[in-house]
Automatic annotation (TrEMBL):
Its EC number is 4.1.1.50. Pathway: Amine and polyamine biosynthesis; S-adenosylmethioninamine biosynthesis; S-adenosylmethioninamine from S-adenosyl-L-methionine: step 1/1. Pfam families: SAM_decarbox (PF01536). GO terms for cellular component: cytosol. This is adenosylmethionine decarboxylase.
């Protein structure tokens, strides 16, 4: 019997929930007053855990075993990758917000890209149609202004899926109207193999996930994206990386799945056109760190914001070309602009045959903005190649670091560290180690058996 190859799903699902209430004393901290037990129970429904956490006067940011969680007084954002069941967090969050804090849901926004391994996703994420049906039946009926849309690109494998529901009429766009706030979600695939190797840990390095994560942040230049941000980073074993950055009330987050054949990285930031963050610098630094083969950028902002116009001008000098651009409007969520990019490639194919008769085909191209930049990537390994006139051509040394087997039969799994629990005691916050429950341990065995692993 033949089985379809499935690696780790890097593309995240993102859920944003907004709440409102009448008690000003509750609204000062709002959702941040939820106990960690409530958060833990919610994440168990999603099938992930907390590995690290940090907070400031505006929000709490959690690095998860699969991506990130951000908690504001009246807003919560959960972003999870792999085979997590993100939409199953809605019911417990509505319940805890209502019963513990007297807060009521006013807006739901769900977004995601196109999965690399869609057949590996569990219900309700088996298709966008199933996700929309689940959202329609789960959300309160008073969120009656709803819209679902699949925003296309020139590539059938890259689309942006958006669902919004709110109790505010269509022409109001409160969440993104203040100071022209925006949310930018960047998804990158086919990462430069040499740069992706920086997100692998050395076997037996003896480091914690926190210390290894800090090292990756410095080594890759991620810390230079926003030097003012408070960074909470984590490196998984044997590979993978997650980071949350907080700069006042705004956050940024990065998640990397570096395995060859299905490499993926995401960058998300929330900001305002009136703040001091240079979005052009941010975009160019992200491209420089990963040099992706494909990149999509989804920008959600108020109707008057022009931040999306900055994207192409920022990345095209780095060697990327705008391939498609789609725009749509959503109730109480402003406009969404979805842009896709691929490199301007001067591509020349080469084939090399090793001593065992295996032919290796690879390509190289420049035009990455800086004159000396050259990317070399292994494309195919096959015994079916005919003799090549340049069979004695040697693969450049840079390829020596690239794994030569794309069709892996064994899958590496990130080990699950003990979670850091964010505790609150009389207004003070601290992190401490906590033990996982037996339920989590049992779930971990089932999850590994299905080729999932904490990111």
């Amino acid at each position: 019997m033949a089985f379809a190859f499935s690696g780790f799903e890097g593309f995240e699902k993102r859920l944003e929930l907004h709440f409102f209430g009448d008690d000003p004393t509750i609204l000062q901290l709002g959702l941040r007053k939820l106990s960690f037990d409530c958060i833990q129970q919610t994440l168990q429904a999603v099938q992930c855990t907390v590995v690290s956490a940090v907070g400031n006067s505006y929000l709490d940011a959690y690095v998860l075993s699969e991506s990130s969680l951000f908690v504001y007084p009246t807003k919560i954002i959960i972003k999870t990758c792999g085979t997590t069941q993100l939409l199953k967090s809605i019911t417990p969050l509505i319940f805890y917000a209502q019963t513990h804090l007297g807060l009521t849901l006013s807006l739901c926004r769900y977004t995601r890209g196109s999965f690399i391994f869609p057949l590996s996703q569990p219900f309700p994420h088996t298709s966008f149609e199933h996700e929309v049906t689940y959202l329609e039946t789960t959300l309160p009926s008073d969120l009656c202004f709803r819209k679902a849309s699949i925003m296309p690109s020139k590539s059938s494998s890259h689309s942006w899926h958006v669902f919004t529901a709110t109790n505010i009429p269509h022409h109001s766009h409160a969440p993104y109207s203040q100071n022209h706030a925006y949310t930018m979600e960047i998804c990158m695939t086919d990462l430069d193999p040499v740069l992706a190797r920086k997100f692998f840990r050395r076997p037996g390095d003896g480091k914690t996930g926190d210390s290894a994560g800090k090292e990756m942040t410095e080594l890759t230049g991620i810390g230079e994206i926003n030097s003012h941000a408070l960074v909470c980073d984590f490196a998984f074993d044997p590979c993978g990386y997650s980071m949350n950055g907080m700069d006042g009330e705004w956050y940024s987050t990065i998640h990397v799945t570096p395995e060859d054949g299905y490499s993926y990285a995401s960058f998300e930031c929330v900001g305002s056109m009136s703040d001091d963050v240079d979005i052009i610098h941010v975009l160019r630094k992200v491209v420089q760190i990963f040099r992706p083969g494909t990149m999509s950028v989804s920008t959600t902002s108020s109707l008057g914001s022009e931040v999306w116009r900055e994207v192409a001008g920022a990345v095209e000098p780095m060697g990327l070309k705008l391939r498609s651009c789609a725009m749509d409007q959503f109730p109480d969520s402003g406009s969404v602009v979805f842009q896709t990019f691929t490199p301007l490639r001067r591509k020349s194919a080469h084939t090399h045959q090793d001593e065992g008769g295996l032919a290796y085909s690879y390509s190289e191209w420049s035009n990455w903005g800086d004159a000396e930049a050259t990317r070399v990537g292994l494309i195919k390994r096959s015994r079916s190649y005919p003799p090549h006139p340049k069979a004695d051509l040697k693969i450049p040394n840079i390829c020596s670091e690239i794994p030569r087997t794309l069709n892996k039969t064994k899958h590496s799994h990130h080990s699950r560290p003990q979670p850091y629990y964010l505790l609150r005691d009389q207004g003070k916050q601290q992190c401490c180690m906590g033990e996982e429950s037996s339920d989590n341990v049992m779930w971990e065995k089932e999850r590994v058996a299905n080729h999932g692993r904490g990111k």
